[in-house]
Amino acid sequence: MPRSKSEYSQGERWFLLYQYFIKNSNKETPVTLDDISAHLLNYNIEVHPNTLRADIATLQSDIFGLTIEYDRRYN
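RE: above sequence
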């Protein structure tokens, strides 16, 4: 059962994003910010688009080093 927004730490949100990108994103089929937001809503996590972009940048940084393909526009 999804927890409330306040029950997820930033690290847990990053992990959920990481899992989502591993399963759903590649060069041929990049995901959109809407797709990513909808995924997080499944866990009752609402994230502002700027926060989402910052989270993605963190996952792409030298710390995590992921190559993430996504459509940077937000509808």
